[in-house]
Amino acid sequence: SITEIEDNEEDLTTRAPIVTVMGHVDHGKTSLLDYIREENVIAGESGGITQHIGAYGVQLKNGQKIAFLDTPGHEAFTAMRARGAQVTDLAIIVIAADDDVMPQTKEAISHAQAAGVPIIFAINKVDREAANPERIKEALAQMNLLVEDWGGKIQSHDISAKTGQGVEELLEKVLLEAELLDLKANPDKPAVGTVVEAFLDKGRGYVSTVLVQAGTLRIGDYVLAGRNHGKVKAMQDERGKNVDVAGPSTPVSILGLDGAPTAGDKFHVFEDEKEAKDIASKRTQLQREQSVRTQKT
Ligand code: GDP
């Protein structure tokens, strides 16, 4: 079994919030994620985020960081939750101001609420003639979701993912909400986290994007992720730049695993390579037995 190291209070340091964007189809989730990705470049770095690795980190002008799961839609959110992974600290729920609070909006709200994840509403497409943000806020109020403008506690901001209007302020509200959550992690221990996505690349082999949640991941670390394992040969950030270390709330794609783990799989760094291999082969064996059993019934 895998035992996680208990942290002492004094070992914990503030970490960046991890944010998921959800909402009804066509309300602008992808546009918002794209806009944020293109506009926010780590200070001092040239060039934007070029790789789509399923997650990315941004640093705002004030130096604060936010990590985004770049898999819009609540399918990814629920798939991860179904595997026991709780990676999201905050949910941005996008609602088009020229439409209504739609069924998938309501679903997204209940998913976030069930997970105990605070919601921030992004009332989108305010650049459109037909946009009526107040009507959306009223509809939310009728669902007992009172936004700040309406005397409630839920943050919301009017934005346009197309022109960028309000996006910076939205991100400031994300940071404000994150501050209230007092998010902390111990960076000084073997890394643990969650797999965001993984695929086989013709030239590079298996590439797995992981989100480090605690500890620090380093090149040369031996990783177990679901049924897969291997030594981290290289790590890249969302710019395709090689990095040597990845601390808490950092998304990074790693090379070196013997296969593609599933989104939502936990990963752990092992000091003992053999132990990691043993657990991986036990999990593979278990999987085989389960599939034989389902074939028989
Ligand atoms: P998703 O399905 O929620 O990911 O929605 P998309 O980001 O794909 O957006 C759906 C459509 O709405 C696309 O044609 C976008 O260009 C458009 N769109 C998204 N945000 C805005 C916005 O703020 N203003 C306007 N005018 N169009 C937008």
UniProtKB/TrEMBL annotation:
It is found in: Cytoplasm. Residues 14-184 form the Tr-type G domain. GTP binds at residues 23-30, 70-74, 124-127. One of the essential components for the initiation of protein synthesis. Protects formylmethionyl-tRNA from spontaneous hydrolysis and promotes its binding to the 30S ribosomal subunits. Also involved in the hydrolysis of GTP during the formation of the 70S ribosomal complex. Belongs to the TRAFAC class translation factor GTPase superfamily. Classic translation factor GTPase family. IF-2 subfamily. This is Translation initiation factor IF-2. It comes from Nonlabens arenilitoris. The lineage of its organism: Bacteria, Pseudomonadati, Bacteroidota, Flavobacteriia, Flavobacteriales.
